[in-house]
Specification:
By secondary structure, the protein is an alpha/beta fold. It folds into 2 domains: 5-179, HUPs (Rossmann fold, 3-Layer(aba) Sandwich); 192-291, Pantoate--beta-alanine Ligase, Chain: A,domain 2 (2-Layer Sandwich), CATH 3.30.1300.10. It has 11 helices and 9 strands. It has helices spanning 10-23, 38-51, 80-89, 100-103, 123-126, 130-145, 157-169, 199-204, 207-218, 223-234, 288-294; strands spanning 5-7, 28-32, 56-60, 94-96, 149-153, 175-179, 240-248, 263-273, 276-286. A hairpin with a 2-residue loop joins strand 8 (263-273) and strand 9 (276-286).
Length: 303
Amino acid sequence: MTAPVLVRTRAELSEALSAARAAGDVIGFVPTMGALHDGHASLMRVARERVGRGPVVVSVFVNPLQFGAGEDLDRYPRTLEADLELCAREGVDVVFAPTVEEVYPGGEPEVRLEPGPKASLLEGRSRPGHFAGMLVVVAKLFGLVRPDVAVFGQKDYQQLVLVRRMVTDLCLGVEVVGAPTLREPDGLAMSSRNRYLDEEQRIEATVLHRALLAAQQEAQYGVAVALDAARAELRTAKTVDLDYLEVTTPDLDPLPVDSPAGTQARILVAARLGATRLIDNLPLTLGVGRAVAAATPAGGGER
């Protein structure tokens, strides 16, 4: 197990990647805020699969621009030593762990990105300014690392959609890969924030995944039935304060009311357990059961 090269500055990052650039190697990138866990490790493995012998770069940077008033910037876990150990186990080549001053020399940037209308939905309603700050740092990191491939987790689904849109609209030339959400054995999506949950909250948090599964199972009967099934499951938890539960297209657009059988969709949920806010999502396939039922003779295949 070889330790990754730890770099702190732009110049060190450029030097660490100079040989790979000269050789024409494909560069993979996994941007993180640290406090790494097995979910992050799965992203690193996807990056390695994509780049082969090329270098995999992981950034560890807690971005102040994407934290709003009252959010957990100061208490967000910083565990660089443990993060480096995990990166070493996954064969990461370079870890870029800059200071705030290195990423934002001279203070907050004067030029910002307008994240567009989809940034005001879902997470954007609860966290105004979050996605504008997130896209600024991702764009800066893309400019510094200059990756060919960047891997993001599907747990932060709205983030993934917006990064892909930014790359397309601004012609950034990065392939953005969405990696599946890694889960605990009981279904809870892995997250750095899970460590904030007390014992009771940790047990109750599994209701988010159960609610999404219930919706997935009932999606054959339409969006309304799927949402009702998810809400019924969520009501079984005492300490869960629901923020949103919505079904959209895979691109976060509203679903047409006349969506045909087989339409792909996404169900997304956010909730608080005490001071901890968790998110999750799953894909849905709408209306397949209704189409089957319509083709089944009377007396068979009914719900």
